[in-house]
C-alpha cells in the first residue's frame, strides 16, 4: 500500500504564500502521478495541479502563474508552492497518488494495490 500525508496548511493573509508538502511512503516505486486537489465546503473536490512521472506539469487555469508544483522523487514528496493567495483559494488541500497501471515493468511489484491513494488533507485559509 501507499500512505500519503499532507502538511503545510495554515492561515495566511491575502497576497501571502504557503508551501504544502505531500509525503508518500510504502510501495512508492508504484507511483505514477502525484496530484493536488482542493475542496471548498459544500463543493466538489477539484483538481489543482499534477506532476506525472514524465514531468508534464499541469495546472488549473485559476492557479496558473501563482502556484508551482514540484516533486522530489528520491524523497517521494511533492510540493505545492502557493503565492499571491486569494480568499477563494481557501480550501482543504488533498494530495493523491496514482499507481502505475499494468502492464508495466513493475506490475508484479504493484499487484494488489489500489488504483490511487489519498491523504487526509490540510486546511488552507486565506483571510481578506
Terminal residue distance: 40 Å
Radius of gyration: 15 Å
Uncertain regions: pLDDT < 50 for 5+ in a row?
Answer: none
Number of strands: 11
The helical percent reads under 10%
List the helices and strands and how they pair.
Elements: E1 2-7, E2 10-13, E3 18-26, E4 31-39, E5 46-52, E6 58-59, E7 67-72, E8 77-82, E9 91-99, H1 107-110, E10 116-118, E11 122-127
Parallel strand pairs: 2-11
Antiparallel strand pairs: 1-3, 3-8, 4-5, 4-9, 5-6, 7-8, 9-10, 9-11
Quick structural overview:
This protein is mainly β and 128 residues long. The protein has one helix spanning 107-110; strands at 2-7, 10-13, 18-26, 31-39, 46-52, 58-59, 67-72, 77-82, 91-99, 116-118, 122-127.
Structural features, described:
There is one protein chain. A hairpin with a 4-residue loop joins strand 7 and strand 8. The strands form two sheets. Strands 2, 4, 5, 6, 9, 10 and 11 form a seven-stranded mixed beta sheet that branches. A four-stranded antiparallel beta sheet has the order 1-3-8-7, with no helix packed on it. The radius of gyration is 15 Å and the shape is elongated. By secondary structure, the protein is mainly beta. It is built from one helix and eleven strands; from the N terminus they run βββββββββαββ. The relative contact order is 0.32.
Amino acid at each position: 500500500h501507499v500512505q500519503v500525508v499532507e502538511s503545510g496548511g495554515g492561515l495566511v493573509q491575502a497576497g501571502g504564500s504557503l508551501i504544502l508538502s505531500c509525503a508518500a511512503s510504502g510501495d512508492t516505486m508504484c507511483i505514477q502521478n502525484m496530484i493536488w486537489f482542493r475542496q471548498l465546503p459544500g463543493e466538489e473536490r477539484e483538481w489543482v495541479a499534477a506532476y506525472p512521472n514524465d514531468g508534464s506539469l499541469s495546472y488549473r487555469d485559476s492557479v496558473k502563474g501563482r502556484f508551482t508544483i514540484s516533486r522530489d522523487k528520491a524523497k517521494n514528496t511533492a510540493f505545492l508552492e502557493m503565492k499571491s493567495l486569494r480568499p477563494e483559494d481557501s480550501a482543504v488541500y488533498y494530495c493523491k497518488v496514482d499507481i502505475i497501471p499494468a502492464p508495466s515493468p513493475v506490475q508484479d511489484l504493484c499487484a494488489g494495490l489500489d488504483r490511487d491513494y489519498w491523504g487526509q488533507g490540510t486546511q488552507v485559509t486565506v483571510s481578506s
